[in-house]
Design goal:
Structural class: alpha+beta
Radius of gyration: 19 Å
Order of helices and strands: HEEHEHHEEEHHEEEEEEHEEEEH
Number of helices: 8
Strand content: 15-25%
Helix content: 25-40%
Length: 347
């Protein structure tokens, strides 16, 4: 349930539109060594260069696990509002406010940080990233009603994190990097700053008596993800849109069995701009609710980030200055969703 104050619905209303359908390339992570894997690596690199968005097959994440986690989240979101707010400390529950800079959406969500001890809820603070979240709030009692959901989300996170590492290993091969783990180790270390976000976009509200409801609402406003990559799965309801290279919006075909991967700002930096951090948004245009689970793969807070030397190209010019992930997080959380967070770090 999303409860908006007077006037807030108008803030997230969007004009009616019918964007074209995006052509989303597929990358097979299970391709065997040899020509098939080389072809998969080339396809992955091409997708990252074009729109920074692709889907993966052969990923190894059990379908039953993904469906169970999604179903458990849907049950939680169906609870009475008071019960969800009471359980908020255990699962990082929030609604309508995205970050701390005033962005709103027709959304409620769970936000968990990934730590060596498992997935723990996070709270908002100025040190957060987009989606804005601060450090873990600490583990809650296993006797809380939300703990079975927590357990499923933890198991799901482990599987998707493993898949994200496999994506980055294949990516390193496609880029010709010296070590296959050059990128994967950034999200696989114990101190890597990763998160899981579960978003629920309730069905579009019906028209009120004597008035009308907008045909489209902002679920999650346009933005890029600051991390290295994001891995997304949804329940097959439409709404996700990506900005193509020319700037026009395209609708991602709904697919309840697919995993989609976004290139994030940090990967754009590491590749010196060769890969494109994809701008995307979620539009609420359906009478069916949408549930999506997004794993954000980020590096350790103290990791120093700059274009990889192998990818500087002719002349060796770096488009970005060196910075730490903590520095980028602190800078990004002070911005609105749609702002360009990379420009302050350009040379």
């Amino acid at each position: 349930m999303v409860v908006l104050a007077k006037g807030e619905l108008a803030q997230i209303a969007l004009p009616a539109a019918q964007p074209p359908t995006a052509d989303v390339p597929a990358v097979d992570l299970s391709a065997p060594p040899g020509p098939a894997r080389e072809a998969a690596a080339r396809a992955l690199v091409a997708a990252c260069e074009e729109n920074g968005f692709f889907r993966v097959t052969g990923h190894g994440v059990p379908a039953e696990l993904a469906r169970a986690a999604e179903a458990a989240a849907a049950v939680f979101f169906a609870w009475p509002q008071g019960e969800k707010e009471e359980a908020a400390p255990a699962v990082g529950y929030g609604s309508k406010r995205i970050g701390v800079s005033g962005d709103l959406g027709w959304i409620e969500y769970l936000l968990l940080g990934v730590t060596p001890a498992g997935a723990v809820p996070v709270t908002f603070a100025s040190s957060s990233t987009l989606p804005c979240a601060a450090a873990a709030a600490g583990s809650s009692s296993s006797s809380t009603p939300a703990s079975p959901l927590r357990g499923l989300l933890e198991e799901y996170t482990v599987a998707v994190r493993r898949m994200a590492s496999a994506v980055l290993e294949l990516m390193a091969e496609g880029l010709g990097l010296a070590g296959a783990g050059a990128l994967a180790q950034l999200v696989a270390r114990e101190d890597s700053d990763c998160m899981l976000r579960v978003n629920h976009y309730p069905a579009r509200p019906a028209a009120a008596e004597g008035g009308g409801a907008p045909s489209l609402l902002t679920g999650f406003g346009e933005h890029t993800d600051p991390q290295i990559i994001s891995v997304l799965r949804s329940n097959g309801t439409s709404g996700l849109e990506i900005a193509l290279r020319g700037g026009e919006w395209a609708a991602v075909p709904p697919d309840g069995d697919a995993f989609f991967v976004n290139v994030g700002d940090t990967l754009q930096v590491l590749t010196n701009g060769r890969f494109r951090s994809v701008r995307h948004r979620v539009v609420v245009n359906s009478e069916r609710s949408r549930v999506s689970m997004i794993f954000f793969g980020g590096p350790p807070l103290g990791e120093r980030l700059a274009p990889l030397p192998e990818l500087l190209g002719d002349g060796g010019r770096s488009r970005y200055r060196e910075f730490t992930w903590a520095e980028f997080k602190n800078s990004g959380c002070r911005t609105r969703l749609a702002e360009d967070r990379l420009s302050p770090f350009e040379n």
